[in-house]
Amino acid sequence: MPSNINARQFLKAAAYRRTCYALTNTSKVSDERIVEIVQEVLSFAPSSYNMQSARLSVVLGKNHEAMWDAIIEAAGPILKEFGVWDTMKPILEGSRNSSGSVLFFEKETTIHAAREAHKSAAHMFSELSDHASGMHQILVWTALELEGLGANLQHLNTIPVVEDIIKNHSGFSPDEVTLFKLKAHLNFGDEVGTHPTVPAKLALSETLRVVK
């Protein structure tokens, strides 16, 4: 058990993480440090049966700008058709104006192989993959905010054309990325204004039971 950290400190760090939309395209944290954080998360974050289906990409600089320009151009007509463009436009433009994005994929052939290897639990592996991806997401998100950046997690893979654009800018080869499923993308940059407060939560009497 490490002696230099305790549960209270860990939970305080986790509680600091918030959704920050007001970001700039600058970063007080170096590209190298951001990549180091993502590498460290990949080195220890758990996955069921040690499946290791996670595939992450850090998109920075001109490639980040180009990715978001393409997303806004492609998503605009679709979002207008559904009547949500006025709501989504500031979010997309804020993502474009951030410093970078971490992309979270799951490799579907790895999940399929796990199903074949563990047939008694085969029906669970899509869900288990989501659990693992969520842990990668929260760990990277929390770590970047502790380094002094703001960040927000988005799921624009609800629009198929956007997922294709994000895959094309992921740095993985076309042969590789066709096997991936996008789960989320985390936009980050220097934070503008006051760090968001914790939103209201349901009473613990409603959300927790203790059974002895």
Automatic annotation (TrEMBL):
Molecular function as annotated in GO: oxidoreductase activity
Any Pfam family the entry gives: Nitroreductase
Biological processes per GO annotation = cellular response to oxidative stress
Q: Which domain of life is it from?
A: Eukaryota
Q: Where is the Nitroreductase domain?
A: 15-165
Q: What is this protein called?
A: Nitroreductase domain-containing protein
